[in-house]
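Reopening closed ticket. The problem is back. First fold of the pair:
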Amino acid sequence: MAPTHPANRRIGALATHVEAPKREVDIEDIARFSWPDEKKSPKAVAPMGMQRSAIQINGCGDCGGQDGLKVSPVAAPPPAAARTPLDSLKWPLDKPVSQPRIRTAEQFIESLRGRNLRVIILGKMVSEFVDHPLVWPSVNCMAETYRIALDNPDVGSAVGFSGYRMSRFLHVAETAQDLVMQSMMQRELGRRTGSCFQRCVGQDATNAMWGTTYDIDQKHGTKYHQRFQKFIAMAQSENLVLGGAMTDAKGDRTKNCVNQEEKDVYVHVHSRKPDGTLILRGSKLHQTGVLNSHWMIIMPGQRLDAEEKDFAVACAIPVDAKGITYIYGRQSCDLRAMEGSEIDQGNAMYGGQEALVAFEDVEVPPEYVFMDGEYEFAQNLVERFTAYHRRSYICKAGLGDVMLGASAVVADYNGISKASHVKDKLIEIAYLNENIAGTALAASYGGQAMPAGNFLPDVLMANICKHNVTKFPYEIARLSQDLAGGLMVTLPADKEWENEVASKLLEKLLKGKKGVTVENRRRIMRLIENMTMGRNAVGYLTESLHGAGSPQAQRVLIQRLMDLETKKKAAKRLAGIKD
């Protein structure tokens, strides 16, 4: 859908009227530790440069404080700074554009070979994983992000500040429209793949780190932002895949980082070399697409205190760095990929990927270190990252488009498409799915500039989008299974069609609507099974629930950002109540 589509203009108008504060808190630890009850005086300017008509958020950014949420009498945001670091870097529209080293899907796939990663899959060490049957669907899925950049460059690519036309996933958002185009791309890729295409975390980490490194430099006089600029310019010039690594193993969640029985459940600085090189140990869980990435951006995953300075580390590490071990994650029905049946996989072309990553004395040169001990900015980084990432769940609307289509097809194949209750179920799927997309787009359209110059989505709408995602895909899956019928889970294996006796009986007894082949009926059943119970249910359902923070983390933010006092005053005024 083009940005000028009427639906987009309507959503843009909606976003204009949604008066939501520009601030968030993240995940279980942040929800538990953040937003103290005590009242403090608001400052003149919100630290992220994000003020709305009646709300001002304070804390972090320029001072790393924890001031909380305050109602401000400010009627309008102050004028933006004349120049920001990103303003001075923007590539002129009339200047020639360069082409990166990796442009095509084939070049990307080839770039993953010969790296000799330490990968363990099903108990075996696998140094070359690209063609492994469990891994290939995820490789091909990420390769689609390169295909869309060539097929539809306006959506899938952008010109970075480096002067290279590269994947939009590497773009630092220079305007709210850039955020909108990210959302458009993410939905289209979800629609193309019916799976997790594994690049949203890197995109969102890039934008969150851009603003946070600038803020750290402003307070401490460090050079993190300059380092990060150089790193991103390099990644853009080669059109690399950046993965984002935030979620630690965490261990005993009643204890902070330093009091864990096993210290390596969090990534931390174990030691330092005289030249400033960091030696890291620790672990990250649920790392989406990490094997298919070229670099990882390591980030802390929660609020930290002064005693946890060694855990306040953000940096970039090549995926093939010495000392890293990857243990591949299981997915429901994943072994079907090793059985040789395309039909039984449901979606044999595309899949997701997760891995546990262990760091054992991994060296990080100083030029790739972007936070080292500035613990007061850990929460700020997490908050910004999840503002981007919760809005990125518009990808589930792309998968929902596939679910709507599959539900309509299976209803047609079953001969029930004209029944009124079937039509009503399809309407409900569309309604739920567009609620996900609409709130994500509202968050993108409502983006505003941070002090570093890049744009941050509307935080309240980003959290509402993600909260919708924790619920709606489950209901869509239920409705789709309802329309598919019980055969979806009792359908005999593809190998039964190789048996002469079974094949004749199955072709005779599994016929549906006239003109529909049994094979096509099987294929659509398996696709629905794949997305609601199989390996792509990992991305569509469970990851929708827990990714970017559990539902309660979003509810904490919604409660803090819904500006209840202003709404109470509006109600009292209309009711004629005078306190």
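Second fold of the pair, where the issue appears:
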Amino acid sequence: MCGILAIIGALTNGDRDEHNLRALIVDMAKEIRHRGPDWSGVYVSHFENYTSILAHERLAIVDPVGGAQPLTSSNQKIALSTNAEIYNHEKLKQELAETHPFKLKTGSDCEIIVHMFESGKSGVDLARSLDGPHAYVMINSETGIVLAGRDHMGIMPMYWGYRRKDNAVVFCSEMKGLHTLCDEFWIFEPGSITQFKVGSGPDGVRAGMKRYYNPIWWDLSFLPSNPADLSKIRNTLEMAVNKRLMADVPFGVLLSGGLDSSLIASLAVREMDKRIKQGIQHKNAFIALEKLHSFTIGMAHPETGEVTSPDILCAREVAKFIGTVHHEFNYTIQEGIDAIPHVIKSLETYDITTIRAGIPMYLLARRIKAMGIKMILSGEGADEVFGGYLYFHKAPNPSEFHQETVRKVQGLHYYDVQRANKAMAAAGVEVRVPFLDKQFLDVAMMLDPKEKMINESTQNIEKYVLRKAFDDSKNPFLPESVLWRQKEQFSDGVGYQWIDLLKEHANSMISDSDMTGVEAEFAYNTPRSKEGLYYRRIFNSVFPGKHAALTLPANIASTVACSTPKAIEWDEAFKQSQDPSGLSVIDVHAKRRKLNNGN
């Protein structure tokens, strides 16, 4: 996890202009230093009458000693500022060396990107060859060519904008690093690259923009038909977890006690145990393979102080079963309320569900960082891929079910991925999400949706095929009670009273008269509740103007239990009660809880 900031093609006149521009970029880079508190770097490029500056705030995960950025070519003419994890970097180095010999300057997994660009590899081919989340800006000072790109799912955030005063374009990991620099700014779309010439301005960026990630299942008109191969599902997820253990620093795993994070934790423990048994020594003398540390958070009862959080209770059971060194933390409603403004600034959103879940995750991130952990594994993405949210019980047919999973996956960078990345980054912790591995997506998203659909008559509950893939009675991955536990959204699972108390607080802050003028106050994505208006006003105070609001898609308030607006058509009750909480699908939630209790 790092922070990148780059200004490209600024018209400057003399040393004073360049000095002032550098001072401005160095100062603005402080806004994203939480993403990379370990080191800061700057590279200045000149091409014709233009000055470009790449800044980097580093969180050192791989090669902590020698991997400082911006990374450069041997002649210093090409420079790269990136926030990336390139899991196949060793393979890429071997392949490139066969045709274009090069000399590595660092042990960084990202340096290969520089040499691939130097070898003449096209932007699209380069992006497609990278296995791992990434966002980067790279410049060739001799040719004036710039290449910028973002990973397939938008796991790593990136924005770009335009400054009229000097015709420059700006790229940044987070909105807070460029919103005061630019007259206009936008999200850099996931799965895309742009290649353009210094000085060509925003028109050059748009003209050079190409989508490189286009799997066949991305098209809503395509209906997959692959039968469920349970061993393939299991093996591909195992590989996705194993490659994400690439780190030269202490790491751990988020453990909510739900299916997704519990599976990731179990797989990570098994891989670490295997490496220990094989006598594998870590190359970094500062880190030794040991028991995995797991972390969870829940809210104590506001009156009794008793731990009633479903997540806390289930996580304890999982940790004991798989053998992690487990750490659990509680927070009070007041601590959660106190964090709201900073969480909204950190997450750069006004989406209700993202904020509800982001608060405990942000609080947990601070605890994790205080214990010396710099990288964490997490279970985001499984609910979108497998249709795990409770409203999927109402899907009318396989086609509708599959299309909704595609829509949910396509929008992840606005919601859960953004929440996980930025909540952890706010404390200087990197989060990795194995369920969004490219190879795993190609397996899971190509399944016949009939394999994923909920069928109460056969007791095929949500994410049945994923659960079944890891249902091993001889060598169990998880306790039965967790493997077949009903879905709880993170904002619900930390404690059922959490959402009710947040609503109560928002109701105390927003009056009925405030709601009467809400459409005039916010014409785009008009808040429908006092809670929504409360968050929106905080967001607007930090990120004023229309461009910040437009970084979220339209109609975000049209949702039931995290559905897209389209899925509201599935059930008449959805149209009457639109709330992002999983508990809003109360008939499904109550029915499953009754079955689980044996009543």
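Update: turned out to be a display glitch only; the data is intact. The first strand starts at residue 3 and ends at 11. Confidence is low (pLDDT under 50) at residues 489-493, 592-599. Please close again.
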